[in-house]
Amino acid sequence: DTAVSQTPKYLVTQMGNDKSIKCEQNLGHDTMYWYKQDSKKFLKIMFSYNNKELIINETVPNRFSPKSPDKAHLNLHINSLELGDSAVYFCASSTRPGTGMHNEQFFGPGTRLTVL
Amino acid sequence: AQSVTQLDSQVPVFEEAPVELRCNYSSSVSVYLFWYVQYPNQGLQLLLKYLSGSTLVKSINGFEAEFNKSQTSFHLRKPSVHISDTAEYFCAVSDFRSGGYQKVTFGTGTKLQVIP
């Protein structure tokens, strides 16, 4: 199936731990994103990468470090987890604007992170 | 800077009744406009989009939205809702940054509750 996939789907961990969420897309897109959706469903962009290069970094604590080994993958590593990090994290991908495509973002199913 | 306002956090409506979900945006440059739908425990899916051309855009499942530049609005409508339309709906706006990259800003979402 062509899609954006994320692992794990659920992640429960203790405060202070370090965890990673993986994202992969097989849509041939060159731009990928991480979003955080809080308990009130508010969706906020965290990072955007284009061809492994960081292009958007939205006032995210430096405990969050994205890593893009290639343009099909964008992983999110979180150090020293805090209670406020509990949320659903969505990965998304799109083509780069100006390529003649419609710039729709395709979302993964989300990773529900619970910090205890 | 761009922003999106969805004034209604929840909209209850009886099955087969019409519905309108409101969206207003602000931006200093030309934008693209989107409506995404999020079903329970899933990622977001594109419902419809306005890029250019006709200001009235339609989805395959009966939703439509009209871009109104003077009122900076992109309200979503459906003449007759079904139970299966129960979901969270997000309005989004994107513009282009230097280098041709886009940033998408999402509204806070409107939960459509269809009552049998």
Order of helices and strands of chain A: EEEEEEEEEEE
Name the helicity range of chain B: under 10%
The strand count of chain A comes to: 11
Based on helices, strands and strand pairing, what is the structural class of chain B?
mainly beta
Average pLDDT of chain B, rounded to a whole number, is: 90
Sheet of most strands of chain B: 6 strands, mixed
Gross geometry of chain A: globular
Beginning-to-end CA distance, first to last residue of chain B: 41 Å
The total strand number of chain B stands at 12
Strand content of chain B: over 45%
The overall pLDDT average of chain A reads: 88
Name the biggest interface: A-B, 28 and 28 residues
Q: Tally the helices of chain A: what do you get?
A: 0
Task: Please summarize the sheet with the most strands of chain A.
Answer: 7 strands, mixed
Number of helices of chain B: 0
Main attributes of the structure:
heterodimer; A: mainly beta; B: 116 residues; mainly beta; 0% helix; globular
Explain what this protein looks like in three dimensions.
- The complex is a heterodimer of chains A (116) and B (116).
- By secondary structure, chain A is mainly β.
- Chain A is 0% helix and 54% strand.
- In chain A, strands 2, 4, 5, 6, 9, 10 and 11 form a seven-stranded mixed β-sheet that branches. Chain A has a four-stranded antiparallel β-sheet with strand order 1-3-8-7, with no helix packed on it.
- The N and C termini of chain A lie far apart (34 Å).
- By secondary structure, chain B is mainly beta.
- At the A-B interface, strand 5, strand 9 and strand 10 of A face strand 5, strand 6, strand 10 and strand 11 of B.
Give the secondary structure arrangement, pairings included.
The complex is a heterodimer of chains A (116) and B (116).
Chain A: E1 4-7, E2 10-13, E3 19-25, E4 31-37, E5 43-50, E6 53-57, E7 64-70, E8 73-78, E9 87-94, E10 106-107, E11 111-115
Chain B: E1 3-5, E2 10-14, E3 19-21, E4 24-26, E5 32-38, E6 44-50, E7 56-58, E8 64-68, E9 73-78, E10 87-96, E11 102-106, E12 110-115
Parallel strand pairs in B: 2-12
Antiparallel strand pairs in B: 1-4, 3-9, 5-6, 5-10, 7-8, 8-9, 10-11, 10-12
